[in-house]
Amino acid sequence: MKKTAPLGALALLTASLAAIYGLNSDDPQQELEQALAPPTPQQKSASNLKDEQTKLNEGSTQLTQQSKTITPQPANAEKQQTVLQAASDEENVAGDLPRATHARAWNKLPEVPAQFEELLKDGTERHFVEYSNFKVQDLRVGDQLDIPVPQLDQNFVTEVVSVVPLEHGGKDITSRFDTGNGENYRVTLTSGQGALYATIDTPYETYFVQGHGGEAWVISSREMSSLRSWDHSDELLPEPVKAPKPPVN
After folding, report:
1. Integer angstrom CA distances of residue 161 from 112, 140, 144, 218, 242
2. Percent of the chain beyond pLDDT 70?
3. Which end of the chain, C or N, has fewer beta carbons within 10 A?
């Protein structure tokens, strides 16, 4: 004789399965059978289609996120661009700024240079200076130029007002200074082929400078007859014409 489960136990099992599968209709036995039944080919096809659609949506979302990603510019390229821009700005600003060069024409020598020892025989009062570090070619209008005069033990701070190139590659430089009494005094320098000539007008008298190879001597206008030519050391130069002082403003 076949034994059957008690009706109460069957009802309890049906209720538990209904709770598990979410069966809410009035006929839980029918829904339970449908839930336990294997899926039909149509249901399998629909399920697979749903899974594929979900994967496509996820792939599309990931692609969209990647397309919105902006690759940053390399740090080195940004730094290089910044440096180039800063250099360009500095160059433009530097071109607008005035030059403020301050140079010293020469310094007094404690001894007589060997190349000028023979000049001591003529009895002319000379003071010797050294100008090897003086770069006449670098002077520009507006530069300040110190002009020491050993005879006066005084230094005149002048301002370059004119620069004229010469055919042989030298330059004529004109500078001036004001002693504060309203009178301007002029200094002219001429650079030649290894030589330097200068005329210094002061409130006291005029002085002349003649140099060669980085060394020179300074004399007063009273000794102008001792000026010589470097090409013909035994000949005297023509007496220079003293430039008149500029009118008083």
Report:
1. 33, 8, 10, 23, 19
2. 49
3. N
